[in-house]
Amino acid sequence: MQRFFYLHLRAASQALRTLLQQPLSSLLGLAMLGLAVALPVCLYLLVSSAQQWSQGLTVKPEITVFMELNAERTDVVVVDEHLRQHKSIADYEFISREQALKVLLEKQNLQDIGQALGGNPLPDAFIIRPKELTPEQMEQLAVELSHLPLVENTQFDAGWARKLAQILAVLQHFTLVLGASLAVTLLLVTHNMIRMQILAHRDAIEVSKLIGAPNPFIRRPFLYLAVWQGGIAAALGWGLAQAFIATLNPLIADFAALYHSQAELHSLNLEESALLVVSIIGLSCLTAAWTCTRLLRKLEPR
Amino acid sequence: MTSAPSPNPMIQFSEVSKVYPGGIEALNQLTFQIDKGEMVFLAGHSGAGKSTLLKLIAGIERANRGTVTVNGQNLSKMHPTELAYLRQHIGLIFQDHKILFDRTVHENVLLPLEIIGFDRREAAKRVRAALDKVGLLNKEKMNPVRLSGGEQQRLCIARAVVHRPAILLADEPTGNLDRAYAQDIMELFKSFHQVGVTIVISAHDEILMREYGQRTIRLSQGKLG
Fold it and tell me: Can you say whether the dihedral through the CA atoms of B149, B152, B157, B160 is positive or negative?
């Protein structure tokens, strides 16, 4: 067991020395990878922060249920009872046709026109605030409520909610695409780095194989090189994302204040950070293992 | 040349043939054995199959027909990784030395011990002992490019014996050396032989072979001559 740890420790330090031996090219490569990591991380933080912010908005989507003009008080009570028992409705408010007309005339200074109308053209209405539902679920609820007795129609301002959800979905998709691009970039850079390293150490590899080095022994320093590269790139990406958040947050706070709201980008939490580091190191390692297996097969001793 | 079966074989060839791609027949139906602790010369002209035979013993090449057995293990049935571990018990001395010129003399000799996974302190001790044995201790920190041909050959020998292998295979170890250097090298082999190492040396210097009076396996166009 001591030998096992010794071999791994030696391979890890050998790999770190390899990185440090060419500081400039290592730094440039790592900076490129760090940027490639930072881009999707920043976008992910933007999207998830926007999602959190939109969920916390005080202005919630509402459904308005308009009764028919000939609806009686008893019809209104039936609808009221139905709404009270509905599981998808958080709360609702009844606005009688008299109340609606009063508010309309007061708000628009139309008292004179009100007298000229000779009657009340407005229906009784319910303003409904559903529980947290997707835009599709809200639309379904609106259709369901429109079928209640003596309900004329329902109005659901789905536009802005749907647009916001769609924008966030597009951004989420874009984050995934950027994440996939990062994975491909990481794969190519790691493959190229390991390939160059193997070719640079071709003589040592051939001699080592001749004198009894099994493939795991040959492969080990290259795998650790990928671990170092992936780990450092992940740390750099994380740091750049933090810097991005720190720079952008005051601007977002100022912008949100204009709308009497509070908003900020959140940082990666511990779980997300760990996932980022582990997945990047894992991907680097897998790529390095594949590259080593492919190239070492060509360097069998002769 | 064939020998009677011995109860103590280290290397056994049974009907071994080796044909390289392109139909080049390097060895043809070879059957012989080498005992534990024996020192044997492989003689023959260039192209007779000496290097191929050594590569078969080391598991670097595989036979097309027949079986090669080393220390009781049939090499044709072994996985490449198992062959690599087998080579950790074999010391190889190459005709072209195969020295790594981006490492010091010390680091070159250290390589087999690193592969086996020796403790750093014990490994350093063994490297110095091996370099002392071949007379290169005072040059351990040098780059091998500054060594003479004879010194490079001795460096190769130090690397081959540093892990105290059971078998030592040497491919033309004195080929490029003058007689004085060649005798130095042969004396080293003799000293390893005295401590029980099985040694197979490919050579074509008949005088030198006669001088050391060991069994000689002669090859001619891939067959025992």
Answer: negative
Span A108-155, pLDDT tens digits: 666 667 667 777 888 999 999 888 777 778 888 888 999 998 899 888
B28, B17 Cβ separation under 8 angstroms? yes
Instruction: Please indicate whether, in this complex, the C-beta atoms of A207 and B100 are within 8 angstroms of each other.
Output: yes
CB A246 within 8 A of CB A255: no
- Sorted by where each starts, the structural domains of chain A and their CATH numbers stand as 2-56+163-298 (no CATH), 63-156 (3.30.70.3040)
* pLDDT over 50 at B199, yes or no: yes
Residue B101 has pLDDT above 90, yes or no: yes
Cβ proximity of B189 and B199 under 8 Å: yes
Would you say the ipTM is above 0.85?
yes
Q: What is the pLDDT of residues B65-96, one digit of tens each?
A: 999 999 999 998 899 889 999 999 999 998 88
Query: What is the distance in angstroms between the Cα of A199 and the nearest Cα belonging to chain B?
Result: 14
Q: Tell me which residue in A203, A213, A216 faces B100 most closely, judged by beta carbons.
A: A203
Please tell me the distance from the alpha carbon of residue A190 to that of residue A222, in angstroms, as a whole number. 10
pLDDT at B201 over 90: yes
Q: In what order do the strands lie in the sheet with B65-70?
A: B24-35, B9-20, B65-70, B73-74
What does the domain layout of chain B look like in residue ranges? 103-164
**Structure-token pair, residue A302:** 């002769």
Task: Give the residue from A268, A220, A206, A208 showing the smallest Cα distance to A38.
Answer: A268
Least CB–CB distance from B112: residue in A6, A206, A211: A211
Tokens of A59: 């202005």
* Residue ranges in chain A assigned as alpha helix (H): 2-21, 23-55, 73-85, 97-108, 111-117, 135-146, 158-200, 202-210, 215-258, 270-298
User: What token pair was written down for A227?
Assistant: 């671990």
Mean pLDDT of B113-137: 91
